[in-house]
TrEMBL record:
Pfam families: Usp (PF00582). GO terms for molecular function: ATP binding. It comes from Amycolatopsis cihanbeyliensis. SUPFAM superfamilies: Adenine nucleotide alpha hydrolases-like (SSF52402). This is Nucleotide-binding universal stress UspA family protein. Residues 6-147, 156-289 form the UspA domain. Gene3D superfamilies: HUPs (3.40.50.620). Keywords: ATP-binding, Nucleotide-binding.
Length: 295
């Protein structure tokens, strides 16, 4: 698999969450007409012990390395059966997972990095695995963290809008994804006047229909002209952005957000919500950072 081919890169660590993420990535690679690379990072750290005896068969690196590589090959075989039209490759690299995946993404010029929400020790929908968190907040390529329930129907793609460059990237990603999968889009702009109690929604002047149309055209008009087949619902909510996005994404196909936004709209707070939705969303989350627009 060369670096010039369209590639979706999926991280694997042997966990059930990672298996689900690789399956999601395989289908996405097929939808994109691309290839899937499944990557496993091996960072051997012998377990520390305070015992003064040496076991008859000490835990050695090589048997664990072989078993880990074997699990990767077995998974690749399963994925090839699931998506026979997608070319599937594997790579087994030494080193910590997050920097290894980030380097591979650059090496392969991957269009998308896909990770499970939690690894072997994290609690689903409560904790975000350290690898997923590090990669999502470090790389400039689009990252999807697969979490929550997977939905393959026409449920909406929810995207956070705040007028920032990263929000613009998230909107582009959402439109391109929705067009390929035949989904509508729910575009959400939420704001609040600080401080707000956690359960308060605040009180703001209701915008006139003309004002709503003007805002929607400003942020979404170009994308709607580019993807006229995608149905768009525009939601303007006076509430905390993270809570609003999580509520709208409860039954979504995908949630797309920009990371470190704080855009041109006064009091826009989307820049801080990527952390919250990565930890609590009930659907896959796409995180878009700086860089060229992915669409």
């Amino acid at each position: 698999m060369s670096a010039t081919e369209r590639t979706v890169l999926a991280g694997f660590d042997g966990s059930a969450g990672a298996r689900r993420a690789v399956s999601w990535a395989a289908r996405e690679a097929g939808d994109r007409g691309g290839r899937l690379m499944i990557a496993q990072a091996f960072n051997w750290q012998p377990p520390a012990t305070t015992f003064r005896w040496v076991p008859a068969e000490p835990l050695a690196e090589e048997p664990i390395r072989r078993a880990t590589a074997g699990a990767l090959d077995a998974l690749a075989g399963d994925i090839r059966q699931q998506v026979p039209d997608v070319e599937v490759g594997t790579t087994f690299r030494d080193g910590p997972a997050a920097p290894t995946l980030a380097e591979l993404g650059e090496e392969l010029d991957a269009e998308l990095l896909v990770l499970g929400a939690c690894g072997l020790s994290a609690i689903p929908r409560t904790l975000l695995g350290s690898t997923a968190a590090e990669v999502a907040h470090a790389v400039t390529r689009p990252v999807v963290v697969v979490r929550g329930e997977e939905r393959l129907g026409d449920q909406p793609v929810v995207v956070g809008v705040d007028g920032s460059p990263t929000s613009e990237r998230a909107i582009g990603f959402a439109f391109e994804f929705a067009a390929r999968h035949g989904c509508p889009i729910t575009a959400v702009h939420a704001w609040s006047d600080l401080p707000l109690a956690v359960h308060d929604t605040g009180r703001v002047r209701a915008l006139e229909p003309d004002e709503l149309r003007s805002m929607a055209e400003e942020y979404l008009g170009g994308w709607q002209h580019r993807y006229p087949e995608v149905k768009v619902d525009w939601e303007l909510v006076a509430d905390r952005p993270a809570r609003t996005l999580l509520e709208h994404a409860e039954d979504a196909r995908l949630l797309a957000v920009g990371s470190h936004g704080r855009g041109t709209v006064r009091r826009a707070l989307l820049g801080s919500v990527s952390h919250a939705v990565l930890h609590h969303a009930n659907c896959p989350v796409a995180v878009l950072r700086g860089g060229e627009n992915p669409a």
